[in-house]
């Protein structure tokens, strides 16, 4: 029977955060940011393994105590220059069966909840393609001109913001990333094969910590138990 695994790309630096410490190691609600997502994933009974893809020269990860995560947590020091490369390298190193499901989740989305994981897995486990957590766009959308004035208002109907985890069969995802590396998420590579991943409705609390101002919101949510 197919197993479910998580793969967490964590080899980025966080240029938009602008801190000397890589974003995933910034302190957040009493632990490094990366620990929140890893602990949630390791506590999910559906997941057999949680691979974390680190930069080859990462010297920080092994400095923390991960014993509470147990044997599920498997660090792989094979991160690449881009997120897509890190995921592709991690898939290769993980040696998963082609039919196994892999849930790719950003280290920079610390507010992931068990309920999000359960919903994603329940909605996709019998799906032919796979899919992603996402939220419908809630704001009015403006397109800017070169002077940062409004060129037009874009219709938001049918637009969703992509989140993670993004859940695909390991073999399909490896093939997709082999053929298409110039992407910012896994779904884009699968779409390039001509397939249509499913959108599974999530919540805005599962946002990506990108800019310094995102840290306070994440901290508040994590203190509230999300
Ligand atoms: N070469 C890279 C780049 C990014 N990531 C990971 O991809 C996730 C989402 O990316 P993002 O938030 O864009 O992180 P960074 O690339 O670190 O941020 P920035 O774009 O601001 O530099 C993060 O967990 C990040 O560590 C990765 O594994 N390998
Ligand atoms: C995968 C992702 O988090 C979905 O929203 C996003 O695409 C990552 O993109 P980034 O440009 O690396 O932040």
TrEMBL record:
Site entry: Positions MEP for the nucleophilic attack: 156, 208
Pfam families given in the database record: IspD
Catalytic activity: 2-C-methyl-D-erythritol 4-phosphate + CTP + H(+) = 4-CDP-2-C-methyl-D-erythritol + diphosphate
InterPro entries to which the protein is assigned, alphabetical: IspD, IspD/TarI, IspD/TarI_cytidylyltransf_bact, ISPD_synthase_CS, Nucleotide-diphossugar_trans
Sites annotated Transition state stabilizer: 16, 23
Single GO biological process annotation from the record: isopentenyl diphosphate biosynthetic process, methylerythritol 4-phosphate pathway
EC code: 2.7.7.60
CDD domains: CDP-ME_synthetase
Keywords of this entry: Isoprene biosynthesis, Nucleotidyltransferase, Transferase
Signal peptide (UniProt feature, chain positions): none
SUPFAM superfamilies for the chain: Nucleotide-diphospho-sugar transferases (SSF53448)
Protein's pathway: Isoprenoid biosynthesis; isopentenyl diphosphate biosynthesis via DXP pathway; isopentenyl diphosphate from 1-deoxy-D-xylulose 5-phosphate: step 2/6
A single MF term (Gene Ontology): 2-C-methyl-D-erythritol 4-phosphate cytidylyltransferase activity
Family, similarity comment: Belongs to the IspD/TarI cytidylyltransferase family. IspD subfamily.
HAMAP family assigned: IspD
Role noted for this protein: Catalyzes the formation of 4-diphosphocytidyl-2-C-methyl-D-erythritol from CTP and 2-C-methyl-D-erythritol 4-phosphate (MEP).
Protein name as catalogued: 2-C-methyl-D-erythritol 4-phosphate cytidylyltransferase
Species annotation: Ferrigenium kumadai
